[in-house]
Amino acid sequence: MLSLEKNPHIRRVSLYIYVSLVLLMGGFLGAVFSIELFNSIKLSGGTIAYGGFMMACVLLTFLERDVFILQNIMRLVFTVGIFKVLLFAIVVKTLQADRVINALDVPDTLFELSIPLIILGAVLIIIELYLLIFMFDRFKYKIKGHAMLSLAYSLSFILVIIADGILFPLLAFGVQSETFELIIGNFSGKVLIGCTYGLFLFTFLLLSRQRMERVVQEPLLDWNLLLTSGKDIVEKMDRREQQLRQAKTVFETSREGIAILNMDFAVVDANCALVNMVNPVSADQGVLRNEKLLERFLSPETGKIAQQTLQSGESWSGEIHWSSPEMRRYGMLNLVPVIDRIGGISHFTLSLTEISELVHAREELRFLANHDVLTALPNRRQLHNVLAKDLQPFSGGICKALLIVDLDNFKQINDSFGHVAGDELLLDFTHRLSFCLLGKGRLFRIGGDEFAIWTHSLSSVDHAQELAEAVRREASKPFRLDEQNLVPLNCCIGISVYPQHAKDVKTIYQQADTALYWAKGLGKGNIKLYKQGMTDSRRQSLQLETALREALTENEIEVYWQPQISLHANHITGAEVLARWQSKALGWITPDIFIPVAESAGLMSALTRVVFAKACEALIQMPAALRDKLIIAVNLSARDMSDSLLLSDLLNLLTAHGLVATQFELELTENALLDMDTQSLTSFKQAGFSLALDDFGTGYSSLAYLNTLPFDVLKIDKSFIAQIPKESSSCALTRSIIQMGRELGCEIVAEGVETTEQAAFLAAEQCQKVQGFLYSKPLPVGEFIEFCRLYPVRE
User: Fold this and answer.
1) Contact between residue 535 and residue 515 where contact means Cβ atoms under 8 Å apart
2) How far is CA 164 from CA 174, 189, 270, 433, 702, in A?
């Protein structure tokens, strides 16, 4: 009847009073009441009260849907138990008193023997109640169907009552069986009581379907919390509430898009950041509710894989893209299953980090890796890729030709009219050739004033020469630099034909370059078709290589110093040392000539050691006040990084000169990273050297890969700097590189700064250091020391 009461406060108080009375009366009934039924079934008043008490407590927990009632019942059992023990002790003393008249002749021993049984019964009651709640907590997730769950739990209730009938006599040793049966009853009585109350419990559960369903939908119990004291519960709840507030704050204010998904992968809740990413035109935070975002973000195949991964309990992440009203957007999507306390999956979390700017910068860098910055033509790397693809087995009657074009007098134009005019000329030349080659071939820019033309639909070698002549005629037309200056130009062209001359990428390129070398040797405006005998003319290169080998041993290599300037403080921070060669036999040889020879001849490691030793010698000759303030940058090649002895040799040179590695910065180009073991970088870093990534942006490497490398400095290539601030694309790219460098934790150095406008732009973008002709050309060590006396050096 109490279960029908609608007022929860009245219902709960009434149920507490009921179980208290049942618990209180049980001890007295066990001492004064016992009945024997058919077939030797003995029931005591205590057993009947025990069964009623257990069922009432279970029903109280279900009715109130509050398992913490068990803690109150535990306190109630403890309090009533103490009261009954004290009361029974008083009754025993009273019955044993001489002046007390025991008209009913009640034996005092029954009350005396009941005292330990009351204590034992209280302990068992507490254990059995927690056991029943624990069993239901597990059954509701493992047994499907209301009727089956009700039956299973009722049977469990009966088994617990029967188990009590077995354990109680075993634990109550020392009590005679006749007396025990009088107070407690026998085992058959326990079975009858268990079945009777179990049947009533089954009927109640079966008829209370809605209440049972609400209880089943609740999460599993936190038994650590249930068995904790009230004070600890309050403290733990306060901590969890604080954690929930913190999580809510993160959820609502995070710049990452976050959403909670249900088991059908539909949105339960989403924060404002995700709404702004996915549906920026709507301010309603609930606009995404019930939407299946995975169908928007992922293809059906990828979405199926992601869902299967999540359902298996593993997380999934990947780069995605989606469309918005403004543009195509990119992000990193991370999906994680939420595991409940029994190890099942209850929800999924979705987090989305937008990387649109990073992806666009990556695509621009990827474009730059395969295209020329100025003309946007495919570059040398792209040419090699195209050649590798197109040089397939020969088909009869079809010729393919590679033409390498080198502009005559371009350096003179650059020196006379400046780089801006030179760039305009290159753009004009590109437009002319592109128009000339329509439908005939593809144009590439492979160097400063070198272009390549690849055509693969010629009927004969003569047609390749005719195409080269058409290009030469187009190049020989005067170019107008401005209203007053109309300059003549010409070009030399080398031609190699497939399959007549070469059958692979390396050979056809080498032969076209050799033919160009011959054409330039004959004078301006010449065209040469490769012939086998031309290779012999390259003996000059061999002669140069021999001379370079002698120069490395005969002390002909010198180092020049180009100062590096802090844009913020306007003082010298260090210098880059550059190799210079004055041959006794050949005179001054420029680096653009002897460096390629050193690379092709495998002399770069020897040249690096010479340059490093020369730098050390010059450094110790400087005044200590100057030497200790400089950071010296030395260039390394990819071949150097594969030299296992280079690090130890450099450290030995430092030791011999009394210098330390922290004074030196080692520079590598981005392209050198492609075939390099990154462990060698770590070794140099651990030795104390700073590491700089030179010519950044001219090669191609993954941004995620660069983030794993221990670089301290990023050097922006001068090809970017040359176009700023007049070209918005170069400004944007330079700005992106500076921002990217800062995010990688690197210092930024700009090379090739030649104008105050360039310096002002870099300063505004917070580039830390610069070097270039605006400040100083590379200087011999003596002139460099004098330059440092005139220019402030950092403190």
Assistant:
1) no
2) 18, 12, 52, 101, 70
Q: Do the Cβ atoms of 545 and 597 come closer than 8 Å?
A: yes
- Rg of the chain taking only CA atoms, in angstroms: 45
CA distance 149 to 9: 29
How does DSSP classify residue 392? P
Gap between the Cα atoms of 739 and 669, Å rounded: 19
Q: d(Cα 543, Cα 751) in Å, to the nearest integer?
A: 33
DSSP secondary structure letters along 34-83: EEEEGGGEEEEHHHHHHHHHHHHHHHHHHHHT-TTHHHHHHHHHHHHHHH
- Is it true that the peptide bond before 563 is cis, omega within 30 degrees of 0? no
Q: Which residue has the tokens 């460099």?
A: 784
**pLDDT confidence of residue 397:** 59
Whether the pTM exceeds 0.70: the reply is no
Nearby residues of 671 by Cβ (< 8 Å), 6 or more positions away: 638, 695, 698, 699, 700
Q: Are 714 and 693 in contact (CB under 8 A)?
A: yes
Strands (E), 280-367: 316-323, 328-339, 345-354
For 368-377, letters b (16+ CB in 10 Å) and e give bbebbbbbeb
- CA distance readout (Å), 158 to 145, 183, 259: 20, 21, 46
Question: What is the rounded CA–CA span in Å between residue 44 and residue 81?
Answer: 18
Q: What tokens does 94 get?
A: 């009273």
- In the chain, % helix, strand, coil (3-state, to 5) comes to 55, 20, 25
For residue 696, pLDDT beyond 90: no
Query: How many Cα atoms within 13 Å fall on the side-chain side of residue 133?
Result: 26
- In angstroms, the CA 735 to CA 725 distance is 11
Provide the pLDDT confidence category of residue 668 given band limits of 50, 70 and 90: confident
DSSP string for residues in 420-439: HHHHHHHHHHHHHHHHHTTT
pLDDT at 70: 67
Supply the angle between the helices 187-207 and 146-171 in degrees, to the nearest 10: 160
